[in-house]
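Try this one yourself first.
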């Protein structure tokens, strides 16, 4: 094992412990190839402007992550990194000046590194060629392509001369969805959407072949299809075993949440629970069943954790429709199946005796108070400050999809004004990332001492891709909560 791998630890046991290492993927040229007629198939709400999404938005994310996770790479160098002559080299995976951080880890570079090995390169080229229906001649050509270039081709779908050979995978920026770190294990996803299949294949090869994860080979959990799957007639979509990372939350060392949603099926949750219990990864798994619709897509689009005792959530998900209901109609009609939300907890030591929570807020309260031992009451911040129609408008643009970089310090979009007001009302400071970065550079702000802050990130283009910073992060290492 090389010295570099000795330092590469994998461990995440909460959603909010100080973030030390994560996998990200910066918007690649494939995002600039999304055409309107394909946007929906590729799970984008609209086409995006590549230059703006990079320079005006995502680059700030990378810089902020650096100040918190790998300050040596950036502190004192910001003026140069941002200068015209640097030409964004710090942010370009194939550039010799690329940051190459081992804390803020770019997936494209891990891919390039495993492709150095000829046997892995041949296998992965064959696998990609098979799922993308490439010709045999193209397959041979790809095997002979230099690793860095090949990694870029696999992700963007485009050769160096700009010929498109297969579709891009623009959703790879949402690294959260390809897998989840649960304690020292990594649960790989099983995507529901065709547009996300190649991402999964590439990540599977990375986890199983990159020296970073060499120590953890036995801790990688993959979800198989049950035998019945192959025997069902026709194009059966109902019983598919699917699970995407946005539906998995590691809320306390012994407890994982799995959302059943548009993307994660009951069958997927079932297989995951069995594996997590069999392999002694956790003792409790709570399944939160949310409406299966595009607006919500994953569990982390309707709530995320901010602090031990603080969560941000969409109110219509938080409670059963009858809770606080003021009008007779709420009692007269059964909630539509699509709108119903339930939370069911499975305990490894009490098989066959699941515990039912009255509503999601009761579950969150239980996690804060009992799993995490809060001494203060649980606080719930609502999307859009719980005011119609801002609640659902802001949820759509990821008001509930925040990334905690440390407890109480979260990243969210700058466009969700009412949610921002709700954070302020709950005692949070609100800062623009542009200002914070200046202060971190000048020393006026310090990543170690920052508390209770919502960091506002520019979002005009990013939000069209329908994911926030929770989705754009795959935490690999977080500190334990003290
Ligand atoms: N964890 C998440 N909420 N991810 C958001 C993914 C968004 C992406 N466009 C998709 O539909 O797949």
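Now uncover the answer:
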């Amino acid at each position: 094992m090389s010295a570099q791998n000795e330092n590469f630890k994998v461990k995440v046991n909460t959603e909010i412990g100080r973030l030390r290492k994560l996998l990200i993927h910066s918007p690649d040229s494939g995002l600039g190839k999304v055409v309107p007629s394909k946007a929906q198939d590729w799970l984008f709400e609209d086409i995006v402007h590549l230059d703006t999404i990079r320079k005006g938005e995502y680059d700030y994310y990378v810089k902020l992550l650096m100040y918190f996770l790998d300050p040596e790479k950036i502190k004192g160098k910001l003026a140069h990194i941002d200068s015209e002559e640097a030409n964004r080299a710090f942010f370009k995976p194939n550039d010799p000046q690329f940051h190459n951080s081992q804390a803020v880890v770019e997936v494209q570079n891990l891919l390039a590194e495993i492709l150095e090995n000829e046997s892995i390169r041949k296998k992965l080229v064959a696998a990609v060629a098979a799922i993308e229906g490439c010709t045999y001649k193209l397959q041979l050509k790809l095997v002979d392509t230099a690793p860095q270039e090949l990694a870029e081709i696999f992700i963007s779908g485009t050769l160096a001369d700009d010929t498109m050979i297969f579709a891009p995978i623009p959703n790879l920026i949402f690294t959260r969805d390809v897998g989840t770190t649960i304690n020292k294990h990594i649960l790989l996803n099983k995507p529901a959407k065709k547009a996300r299949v190649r991402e999964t294949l590439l990540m599977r090869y990375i986890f199983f072949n990159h020296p970073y994860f060499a120590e953890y080979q036995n801790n990688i959990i993959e979800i198989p299809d049950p035998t019945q799957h192959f025997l069902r007639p026709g194009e059966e979509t109902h019983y598919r075993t699917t699970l995407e990372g946005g539906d998995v939350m590691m809320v306390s060392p012994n407890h994982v949440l799995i959302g059943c949603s548009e993307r994660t099926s009951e069958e997927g949750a079932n297989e995951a629970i069995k594996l997590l219990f069999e392999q002694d990864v956790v003792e409790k798994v709570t399944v939160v069943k949310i409406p299966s619709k595009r607006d919500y897509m994953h569990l982390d689009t309707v709530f995320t954790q901010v602090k031990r005792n603080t969560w941000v959530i969409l109110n219509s998900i938080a409670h059963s429709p009858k809770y606080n209901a003021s009008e007779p109609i709420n009692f007269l009609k059964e909630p539509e199946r699509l709108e119903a939300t339930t939370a069911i907890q499975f305990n490894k030591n009490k098989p066959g005796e699941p515990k039912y929570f009255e509503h999601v807020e009761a579950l969150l309260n239980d996690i804060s108070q009992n799993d995490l031992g809060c001494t203060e009451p649980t606080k719930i911040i609502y999307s859009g400050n719980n005011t119609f129609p801002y609640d659902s408008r802001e949820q759509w643009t990821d008001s509930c999809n925040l990334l905690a970089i440390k407890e109480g310090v979260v990243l969210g979009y700058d466009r969700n004004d009412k949610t921002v007001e709700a954070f302020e009302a709950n005692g949070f400071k609100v800062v623009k990332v542009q200002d914070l970065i200046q202060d971190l550079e000048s020393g006026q702000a310090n990543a170690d001492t920052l508390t209770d802050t919502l960091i506002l990130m520019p979002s005009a283009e990013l939000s069209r891709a329908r994911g926030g910073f929770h989705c754009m992060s795959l935490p690999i290492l977080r500190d334990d909560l003290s």
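Discussion: The chain has two domains: 3-171, 239-473. The longest strand covers residues 19-24.
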